[in-house]
Amino acid sequence: MKIAPAYTIKQTADQTGVTEDTIRYYEKIALLPRAERKDNGHRVYREEDIRTIRLLSCLKKTGMPLEEMRPFLAVSADADPADYPELVAQLRHHRENIVSQIASLQQVVDFIDMKLDEGRYRGECPDEERSGQKTRPISPMEMSHFSVAGRTGKP
Amino acid sequence: MKIAPAYTIKQTADQTGVTEDTIRYYEKIALLPRAERKDNGHRVYREEDIRTIRLLSCLKKTGMPLEEMRPFLAVSADADPADYPELVAQLRHHRENIVSQIASLQQVVDFIDMKLDEGRYRGECPDEERSGQKTRPISPMEMSHFSVAGRTGKP
DNA sequence: CTAAAAGTTGGAGTCGGCTCCAAGTCAAGA
DNA sequence: TCTTGACTTGGAGCCGACTCCAACTTTTAG
């Protein structure tokens, strides 16, 4: 049988771009499960852990607070999410958020593009808070032809 | 001639979803220009200001630190960005970041979708840190058919 | 005239997310 | 044997981004 490759915390940090301190911190606040230890107490990481840490780092880049990441990890660690209906609901909810965030980002890109190839323009953001209605689920497809909402400059 | 509509800080807060305190804070740190005042010292906001605040709020949702937003505002306020080549470079740089962030987010969506309709899977994040090479500029188009990078589960 | 509502200021406090110690353990090399 | 280096722990400190407060000035309603 094959041996599963194991990594030190330093190697893990290098591979994920997350610092050792931060990895330990995530473990401390139980965002990551307590890592396996060697006899000398040193942490050992597996491919799976590295993927998990990458996922965290990825979510972090999107501005998600650490507390909101927990549902992702629950799903990431456990076997079947279908066993936890509440978790599934949370995940769906997060999906919506992210999709709408993609739309926001796409608008920022549009904003920049506009600014870069003409002088004056200001894009709008889709705003899930405004008028408390459900976030409209904009599909990634739909998003790509997002048109400019209004213009401010002279005609 | 028409009168330009003006808003109180409260109305502005309501319309943008940014609290009054935060708006004042942004002004304090000069992220927003000092707002026009009425005779009694109360701040007055115009459509333009509201758009600017929405832009900030939009950028914030993406996890961008306030300091990084300044270039956007410079462009937003000034006339022609082409006058400031360094600013243009910064904007392009930010555009790249955002595009790659969109890709990250899309992967998170994929991750969730996978998790939701089968049991176990773990996606990867595109990682600009790893091996210091330039962020590959993934176009929004290209992104929409992002395929799953690898799979861990059953065939 | 008084009271409540909506604003102003400066400054203090809070909270999330690290980041940086100091003190200690262990393993390998000169 | 001594030192170097990679790790461990608990805890303190820091910074960004608010958030709250006290003291004050209007303005509007009753």
The biggest sheet of chain A, with number of strands, parallel, antiparallel or mixed sense and barrel status, is: 2 strands, antiparallel
Give the count of helical stretches of chain A: 6
Q: Which structural category do the helix and sheet elements of chain A fall into?
A: mainly alpha
Low-confidence stretches of chain A: 119-123, 127-155
Structure, described:
2 copies of one chain form a homodimer. Chain A has 155 residues and is mainly α. Chain A contains 6 helices and 2 strands. In chain A, strands 1-2 form a two-stranded antiparallel ribbon. In chain A, helix 3 runs antiparallel to helix 4 (66-77). The first copy, chain A, starts with 8 loop residues before the first helix and ends in a 12-residue tail after the last helix. Chain A binds a DNA duplex (30 and 30 nucleotides) through residues 8-10, 19-22, 24-25, 29, 37, 40-43, 60, 65-67.
Describe, in short, the structure shown.
Two copies of one chain form a homodimer. The first copy, chain A, is mostly helical.
